[in-house]
Predict the structure.
Amino acid sequence: MIRKAVVLLPLSLLIITPAKALDQRPPNATCIAPPLSRDGLVRVARAFGSLGFVGPTQIRQHPSDPNNFYLSERRGMIKAFDRTGANPTTALDMRDRMAFTATDTSDSEQWGITSFAFDPRFSENPFIYVAYNSKPSTTARVRSHVSRFSADSSRRSFVPASETVLFSFEQPNRFHHIGQLQFGPNERLYIGSGDGHDRTFAQVSTDPRGKILELDVRSTPPEVRPYALGMRNPWRFAFDGSDIWVGDVGWHTWEEINRISAAGGNYGWPIYEGPTCLGDNCNEPGLIQPLHYFGHSVGTAVIGGDIYRGGRIGSLSGSYIFGIGSGPGLMALLAPNFTTRIEIGQLPAGRPTGFYRDQDGELFVFDTTGNAVWEVFAGSGDEEPVPLLLSDTGCVEKQNPAKFAPGVIPYDVNQPLWSDGATKRRGLGLPDGSRIGVATDGDFQLPAGTVTIKSFLLDGKLIETRLMMNHPNDGGWRGYSYEWTGSDAVLVPSSGKIKTFTRISGKTQKWRYPSRSQCMQCHTLAAGVSLGLETAQLNRSFHYPDGQIDNQIDVMERIGLFDRDLPPTSQLPALATRTTGGVTAQARAYLHANCSHCHRPDGGARVTIDFRYTVATPDMNVCWVDPAIEDFGIPGAHLLTPGDPDLSIIPVRMNRRDRFGMPPTATRLIDKKMVATINDWIRTPGVCD
C-alpha cells in the first residue's frame, strides 16, 4: 500500500469571487537578472566539453601524457578522456565492490571511490591507488580501503582483478571516513582519514581515524603511520612543496584550514575546535593551532583546495583557493600572509566537493552531488553584478522603492519560512515571453533571467529586501540583500552584516543580513533554489493590489505563465497555514517550508532525514531513529519518539538558538508557536503509523 502524507487545504481556498485579478500578463522589461559580465575575481566554465559524469570525486592527469585526464565516480568507475572530453573510455570498473553499499549515505556519508592517485614512478611501477568506502556484505559494517591496481598492457586502463588491498579498517559510524589520497614529494602516499564520528579516536596514535596517515607503498607489508593527529574530517588536502594544506571539517562552530609542515604534528581535535577548547586538557603540550578558522555564519563543511600556481589569475598567485560545502562560494586566503579571506566567485549551481591543480597550476572544481566539473578562469573584477541601490534594480518603482515595479507579479505562500516574526512581501519577475516549468512534485522551474523578491518588515517598517537572481548564460542563481536606510535600500556587502533594531515593545532584536554564501545554504539546488514557488505553497487565495481576490495558481495559468496545463486547483495539494489545517498538517507544512530544503535527498544535510510534505511520516527516517549528530545528554532520545516531545530531538533543536539550533541560519528567535505545534503533533496517537 502506498502511504501518503496528510495535507489539508487552507480555508482561504474556499473563498469564491466573481471578479478576476490580473487578466493579462504584465510586461516586464526591467526586473530581469543580468548576465554576470562582472563576475568576481574568478569565473568558472564547464570542463571537458559535453562529457557527463555521475558523482565525480577526483581528477588526475596521466603521469606520462598530461593531455589525458582520469576521473573517478563514487559508484566505482574511473573514466579516461582527453582535455576536450573526447575519446572517453573506462579505465577501471570496480562497481562490484559497491554492491552491498547503500547510495543514500545511510551506510557511509563518503561511500564509494573518494580518491585515487598514480604511482609517482609510473613508468617503472604502472599502478593506480584507490581509496574507497564500502560494505563487504549487507549485514557488515562499512570498511575503508586503500588498494593498488595494476595497469594492463596499454598502461591506460587497469585490471579490476589485480586489486591488492594495502590498508583496510572498519568504521564505527556512517560519517567521516577515508577521503583524499595524495603522494608527497618523498613518494609516500598520504591519506585523509576522518574520525569515524567518534571523537575519542583522533588523539589515539595507534588508531587510523582522525588523522592524515602516511603509507610507504614500497615496504612489504606496507607500513602505515599517523602523520598528523587531531583531525576531525580532513576530507580534502593538497601538497604544495613539502607542506600539506588541509580543510578540516568543523563540528558546531568553527571550520579549520591547517598548514601541516614536513614534521607533521597534533592539530588539536577534539581538545580544540578552531580557537575554542572543548575539554579540560586545554594546556596539552604540542597542540598546533589552525592557520585559519571561520564560523558557520560564513558556511559549513570546509572543502580543502590548493595553492594557486597557474598563470591565468595573477592576483591570486600563491593564494590558497578552497570551498564551502554548504554553498556555491569559492574562497581564497590571500598570499603571502594568508590572513585575509575573501570570496572570489561562485559556482553557477551546486557546491564544491573537491579541487584539482593540474600540471600547469590551473584549478578544476568538482561537485559530487551535482555531477559537475568546472574549470577556473580569471573573472573581470570584483565589482557587484547588481546596482548599489534597490531603486536602480528595475524591480521596484524608481520614485517609490517600497512598491514593486509594474512588471513584478506579487504572490504569497501558505507556510512561510520563519524569519524571527518579520512579515514579508513577495514578488516574481519573469522575462517577457518566458514560461515556468512545473516539476512532477509541483516545484516551479524558473527560466534564466528570473528574479524573485522578498521584503521583510518589523513592526510594519521595511528593513530588508532580498533578490534571488537566475543569471542567464549559465550564470546560475545568486542572492543579494538590500538594507533599508530610509526611503531606499542599499546593497549589503557580500560578507553580510548584523544590525540591532528596537521594536515597538521596547525590546531589541538583532537582524542578520545574509552573506551571498548564506543565501545559497538554504536555497539549495535539490530544492529548486526558489523556495516557496511550488504548487502546494501557492495554491491559495491572494489579495491583489487592485482589490481583487483570486487563487494564485488560477491567475498564473490564466495569464499564461506555465508551460503546460495544470490540473484544477481543487485537485492540487496545498500546504496548511500556521493557523489552519489541523496539527498534523501544520506540523508537516512547517517542516517542509523550514527544513526540507536541506533535509531531502542531496539537500546537503549530513543525515538522511526527509522533511518534504509528500513523504509519509514513517518514511521520513525520524521515528525511533537515534540521533546521529547530538543527543544533548537525553537518555533514550530519538529524532522523533512518538508521544514524547521531551525525548524527541526535533523540537529540542527547534527550541534552541545556539550552535545546535534548527533552523541553523537566518533566525535568532525561537518560533514558540510552531514548537508547540510540533510537540502536539508528536503527541498525536499513531503519529508514526
